[in-house]
Amino acid sequence: MTTEQLLSQIRSKQSFLCIGLDVDLNKIPAHLQHTADPIFEFNKAIIDATHDLAVAYKPNMAFYEAHGLAGWQSLEKTINYLNTNYPEQFTIADAKRGDIGNTSTMYAKAFLQDLQFDSITVAPYMGKDSVEPFLAFEDKHTILLALTSNEGAFDFQTQMLDGEELYKKVIATSKNWKNSRNLMYVVGATKAEYFAEIRKLIPDSFLLVPGVGAQGGSLAEVCKYGMNSQVGLMVNSSRGIIYASAGEDFAEKAREEALKLQQEMASLLPATF
Q1: In sequence order, what are the beta bridge partners of 119?
Q2: Phi first, then psi: what are they for 61, rounded to 5°?
Q3: pLDDT tens digits for 104-127?
Q4: pTM for the full model?
């Protein structure tokens, strides 16, 4: 998917909502537990109920890999369902991979070529040669962890190095990598005060923003400091939407929560967009 296609979705839906499909079998409704594939059935219902309100879906790989082959099959069925029935959706493999050389190439092949995700999250700690194999897939997007929403982000990401925070050095350095035009960046919603500084470095890049909802991030603050003239944001909500109800009405309640976010997003979009 091109950036222009993503922008077209944002315009038509008046939304920049990404829904995280972090499926915990202990939290999904009891009536799904007896189906042949509870994870897929849960995802399918959530997607069907919210696809007109969201522009992206983001399965977190850990919640699938934890179940071995069965979990991987649930993931494959989920991405195939999205690509077949809702091809306009931007899909994100939340894998946070990062290794060198052929290893990164194989990770990229698995998610971007074989499973046909539009993008993948990647950790930059090992540097250029751990990220460029993902960027080699020129029709795909690589979403680089820049400043995350967890408490431990302060352990390294905001530490000063030669008078500059490490996360800023990561962003600035990444702009020089091959095919860096296909980079997006993860910036946590709980770090809203940092967005203005980040926009000085990457004014036009898309930012994937987790942390709104259950983690306490403010959508209004994120937009105030992080939105550009072309929006430039995909704001993710996972638990706040998909676990809105543990009953048979879970998909209906998920839609209600997604609609609340979509309506707030519509009110925050630039008047000229």
Answers
A1: 92, 141
A2: -60, -35
A3: 999 999 999 999 999 999 999 999
A4: 0.96
What residues contact residue 132 under an 8 Å CB cut-off, 6+ apart? Answer: 104, 177, 178, 179
Distances (CA, A) of 83 to 80, 101, 206: 5, 29, 22
Provide the annotated active-site residues: 96
Mean pLDDT of all residues in 77-101: 96
